[in-house]
């Protein structure tokens, strides 16, 4: 897939959706999906409040118009219009006047990061609250303050979007990004934007697998999708959850619960050869929606791709996760890793060397250095030698790349040349 | 089991039996078993000299009344009444006068540890000898000395004791400690005392397994027991040999010959989470009576638990292994490790998550933090998430604890809470 | 096998064949085989030019009488008689006069090792060229030079030699060394000389396996032998390719493609206990003739033994690989490793402890220290305890040696003593 300018393209989409106040339900999600839908034909689903999805129930819909804390003079000392994080997500409506000492029980700050606004939610317990910089709170004089949250929490629906790119097979590769976080750039405007751009570039291509892109609220959204798509889920052969794909850390990959699924091997292979400080970790039942895809009743081969791992960077879940924190080059790097994973999943295969007894004479085919004896050895020929030796019908190209310690792309290219010269055939052939 | 004051209790029993001169046969063993028998109803067995036990024969019985080396003036320069180690264990009786130069051929010292008395034995070759501090020997003037060992070596019997706590099943957990060493506190008054106190506390409890406590002389005692109890041995599902459980080192565990028996996994798990400098080593065919239990014709799942490993501390097999060398807190720590192992063996089981599709909603059951978004994550909920995700009927609680990197006790507690809430059932249910 | 003076013997043979100008065909190979044949009854095979061997064709035969570069005054500034490396191996005949600037396109040097002559070949593309020290080239004044290579490249044959030592079984242990390199002492006069001396000492012995020694040109020679001996190849149970066995590095072993063949385990075991800086590496499809033996259509259990690994030492494929670079003591050390490998392959077996229940009483058989209690433990008895415990019919002696971390020779010796005492019998007995 064409990668020219992809970083800037993804970044522009991140910036487009960053200001929206999203939550697990409500108009923020709808507006976000509308903007993603400018780039791909997204199907938007609405699931009514009260619908049972496995052990859960679709909650009421939350929408917010305005919120502020005002001092005696009417000055807004905290204003939702400045930052969507200022309100505890899913706060019930409130309009009160109370002394600061009392109001502080509804205010969340980060004393250790006193200039940042924290991100807090209260989805499943009715509360109201504000979030603000600790230093700003400390600067407030005592007195009576007005606190207002002009929000509604009422029956409505949960919204999610999906796009399916049909391939030659109805076996699927699932990509999923959570759409419920408000103004947090890396977590997860980056994932939403990257997948949208990826889907757009993938759309015109013919592929072996079908590709599904899911943009749903975290936890309840993934649970809702799974509850409504058990049959589809049974066709998922590979999957990746994406979040935090725009910062300078990582890259990192968390294996699926299966641990040795094709996607696990492909991602581990790619990260082994990746620049930066790649880490591959085993599945843990905490994180993003891989928790649901990898619940024991589904146990799908779905891993998590990130740059910095969630919770590992100080900007995580604070106002520090803003448009300065994600960079086009990191978005582009994440994009390339994902497309390389698609390359492996699409192209890995078992081939068979048709001249398995001794080496074929590569030299007379122009595939081997003519002057022998130098210490360097035929470094450019090594990928061919590995491929010929292990193309025995049992080892796939990824097996060979892992055995050789070479990137899959080099083995795949060598295999392609050898196939052209008639030295390899499909293993079943 | 109640652990209050357990260290002091065990230490008191160590002190009680420390002065006795034990050997592989004789009254020292009988007196020791009599004192242990004050705390538990011990069955004492006597096996006559000459009895064939596999490749071995029960030796004659050794008893000693007195022993000394006296100088010209009649002064006792070495006296068995000062320390039981002064006589080579199993020495034949002797009463001679000879020059020091000649007598020295019968005297063992430790030139590198010149203030300590070594422990030496000669069970299977008839000899006599004395052990003493090297500095004390060096201080002796030349001259004629009287050496007397007032001992008997004659037909009698080999003595061992055992206590069986019956459980719901006749499958057994064997605990074994050698009872043949004279005044060596860590090796093995500590093991004898710990197991006696453990047996006493276990006695009133209902257990899944039956628990057998064996106090027998090293090597020949274990061989004798196995020769007389082949059918019982076939019911041993778990076993631990204990020695050196009272010093400040370790803890350490030596795996059974099987290497991956349940007891091996349980002990490795506990030591992984233990304070100190825990070490887990593979089976080697040298050490204590696990040598016999793990001989290829039995190959029982019996490991060795110690604090410092035998031979690894300078006090080993010297008069330095005395009542100052073992401490109540180390005895208590060893006790807690053993009872934790029993907890694992008794309680490990496979459970099944009855809501395996996606996560159950822990929040509405009061099992999950209500305010989301903080970096810390639901650390107290992690044990529940691990248990729910891997309680698939295939993973046992210990499997889950190992996978999660959490102590078994935390997983077992989480499982218990989840079972109460109806989220888990026994895998067979 | 007697090892007295073996290093000096092998070195003398290295020195004898070092000056000969070998190539993949021609009289250099014949003369080399003639000299090796003074020590063992070598069968020499001639395979005509044009013969098809798998994907390859036997090339024309190359012979060289003389070669030089002469300056205006007729002085030979480069002379083949000084060093066989001065001519690019397999150069076509030429006799020209040309300016130095033009001639330099046919001259190979090593700018980074300016005093050494490189080794270069052009087997499968017709070229001519000279090799010389970079400093010597730099010292040449401009001017017209005469370049002459008095060589022939015409139909003839490819030559290889082999020697078969028949054993009790027609299953074979193959030893192979390439015979095509000109004056390079370590690579591979050393391998040729070591195997010749080994074959001579093995010849009078009765062995379980048959031993085949193959001295063939690299690549094309091995391919030729395999093409003509497919049935023999199917009987190869173990094999080693030898090269670079005389320098001070290593030792090193490269596993066969199978990776866990008996020879792989034997060599890894020996190198684990070897002095120096032993390394064991996995198979890679580049190196010496193990490439052909381990091609997927054969997949024979043939590894590569070397001291320094090819390409890893600065003298590799240069005039620095001369008679000063190989030493008798290193040749002797390599020889001992190979004979130790033969010992393992010949003698590894599964035995059965006839008294598997508890330990046999070694003491009454005089096999155990009589005085007990010392810290050292029965270090001399450990090999016996390991062997008795694991001689269960499932573990071979090599298995036991690996489990015990002891050299095979110690376990084999212990097993021999225990067999004499009737405690072990063959597992099938």
From TrEMBL, chains A, B, C:
Cofactor(s) the record lists: Zn(2+)
Co-factor: note: Binds 1 zinc ion per subunit.
Matching Pfam families: DUF2172, DUF4910, HTH_47
Ranges for domain UCP01524 winged helix-turn-helix: 351-425
Domain annotation DUF2172: ranges: 61-152
Every DUF4910 domain range: 11-348
Gene3D superfamilies associated with the record: 3.50.30.90, Winged helix-like DNA-binding domain superfamily/Winged helix DNA-binding domain (1.10.10.10), Zn peptidases (3.40.630.10)
Span of the signal peptide: none
Keyword tags: Metal-binding, Zinc
InterPro entries: DUF2172, DUF4910, UCP015244, UCP01524_HTH, WH-like_DNA-bd_sf
Keyword field contains Metal-binding: yes
GO molecular function annotation: metal ion binding
Binding-site positions, Zn(2+): 181, 187, 317
Identification of the protein by name: DUF4910 domain-containing protein
Taxonomic source organism: Rhodovastum atsumiense
């Amino acid at each position: 897939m064409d990668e020219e300018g992809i970083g800037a393209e993804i970044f522009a989409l991140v910036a487009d959706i960053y200001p929206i106040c999203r939550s697990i339900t409500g108009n923020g999600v709808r507006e976000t999906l509308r903007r993603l839908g400018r780039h791909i034909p997204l199907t938007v689903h609405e699931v009514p409040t009260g619908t049972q999805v496995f052990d859960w129930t679709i909650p009421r819909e939350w929408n917010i118009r305005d919120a502020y804390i005002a001092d005696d003079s009417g000055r807004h000392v905290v204003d939702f219009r400045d930052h969507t994080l200022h309100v505890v997500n899913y706060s019930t409506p409130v309009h009160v006047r109370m002394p600061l000492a009392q109001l502080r029980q509804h205010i969340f700050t980060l004393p250790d990061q006193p200039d940042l606004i924290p991100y807090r939610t209260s989805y499943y317990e009715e509360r109201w609250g504000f979030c603000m910089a600790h230093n700003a709170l400390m600067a407030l004089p005592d007195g009576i303050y007005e606190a207002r949250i002009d929000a509604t929490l009422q029956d409505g629906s949960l919204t999610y979007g999906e796009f399916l790119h049909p391939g030659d097979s109805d076996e699927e590769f699932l990509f999923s990004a959570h759409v419920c976080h408000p103004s947090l750039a890396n977590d997860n405007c980056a994932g939403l934007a990257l997948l949208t751009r990826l889907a757009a570039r993938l759309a015109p291509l013919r592929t072996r697998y079908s590709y599904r892109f899911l943009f749903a609220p975290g936890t309840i959204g993934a649970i809702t999708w799974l509850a409504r798509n058990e049959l589809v889920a049974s066709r998922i052969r590979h999957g990746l959850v994406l979040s935090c794909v725009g910062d300078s850390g990582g890259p990192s990959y968390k294996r699926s619960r299966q641990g040795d699924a094709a996607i696990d091997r492909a991602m581990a292979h790619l990260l082994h050869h990746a620049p930066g400080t790649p880490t591959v970790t085993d599945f843990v039942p905490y994180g993003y929606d891989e928790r649901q895809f990898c619940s024991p009743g589904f146990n799908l081969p779905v891993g998590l791709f990130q740059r910095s791992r969630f919770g590992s960077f100080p900007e995580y879940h604070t106002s520090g996760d803003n448009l300065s924190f994600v960079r086009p080059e990191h978005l582009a790097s994440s994009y390339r890793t994902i497309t390389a994973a698609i390359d492996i999943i699409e192209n890995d295969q078992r081939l068979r060397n048709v001249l398995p007894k001794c080496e074929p004479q590569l030299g007379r085919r122009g595939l081997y250095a003519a002057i022998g004896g130098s210490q360097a050895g035929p470094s450019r020929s090594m990928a061919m030698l590995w491929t010929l030796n292990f193309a025995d019908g049992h080892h796939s190209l990824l097996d060979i790349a892992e055995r050789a310690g070479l990137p899959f792309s080099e083995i795949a290219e060598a295999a392609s040349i050898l196939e052209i010269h008639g030295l390899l055939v499909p293993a079943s052939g």
